[in-house]
Amino acid sequence: MKQVDIINKEDLDKERFQVHYEVHSPGKVKRSSSFKRKGCPVVEVGSKLHRTTSDVGRVCDRGMANKENELTCSDDVRGMHYNDNCGLPVNSAEASKMAGASSKYSDFTELSKDHEAMTHVLFGRNLRLKVAQTLWRRNASELVAYLIRIQDTGVLLDCLPVLTNDLQTEAPCLSLGCCVDLMPQVKVILSSKYEEHIMVGLHWVQSVIRKWWPELSKNEKRLRDSRSEDRNIEVMKQRLKDLWKEGARLCLVPGSTGELAKAVEAYLAQLP
């Protein structure tokens, strides 16, 4: 029995050494230590350790552990390379795309600046149109004086269609004297490069001529001391003639603009 005990102790020491060298799982080590604390017979413990070490040898192999370590390290290295490549442009094509994107952003910045400027312009024009509407309801002569004072072509273009419609009524609010005062600004509109602006100006001139055509077509010399209406007729005749010295070119414009200019010229050709 003593010899058996010695052999088992030696085997036990060998097995303990092998378990300490080969087993990497903390769970398995705890099992061996738990057997030791129970104080079971040595032979039984040795047999159990043999079974335990045989199981461990089958499950955990040093070569397999090394392979797992290699795979884990290779995955980590690939992850590091991937993370490094994420922050850098892959090629020149991607760099050119990034440059194009930055240029698009600059374009949007310019557009926002343009929109801010346009918003500022429209805000100012809206305020002036509200003032013009108030003056128009109060007195037409006050509106004309306001338009002459501000010298804003955009506001005048917005107001001229209203004044044109008023001249086409039987009892217009706009007097001949007001039309005489507005003629220099309408002349500026007729020299515009925009056809829509020219059409607005021509419609107003045509309405003025039609409204006071009976007085304008008379071949009578009015004295200087005559009433103001007669003086305004003479001034209007002269201003219409001066206007058409530069406006005759409008008859060469194709389309509706040229047709309207020819209609105005047909009236002006009959002025005495």
TrEMBL record:
UniProt domain Katanin p80 subunit C-terminal: residue ranges: 113-267
UniProt GO MF annotations: microtubule binding
InterPro entries found in the cross-reference section: Katanin_C-terminal, KATNBL1
Keyword Cytoplasm: yes
GO cellular component: cytoskeleton; nucleolus
Compartment annotation: Cytoplasm, Cytoskeleton
UniProt main location, coarse: cytoplasm
Record's keyword terms, sorted: Cytoplasm, Cytoskeleton
The protein, known as: KATNB1-like protein 1 Katanin p80 subunit B-like 1
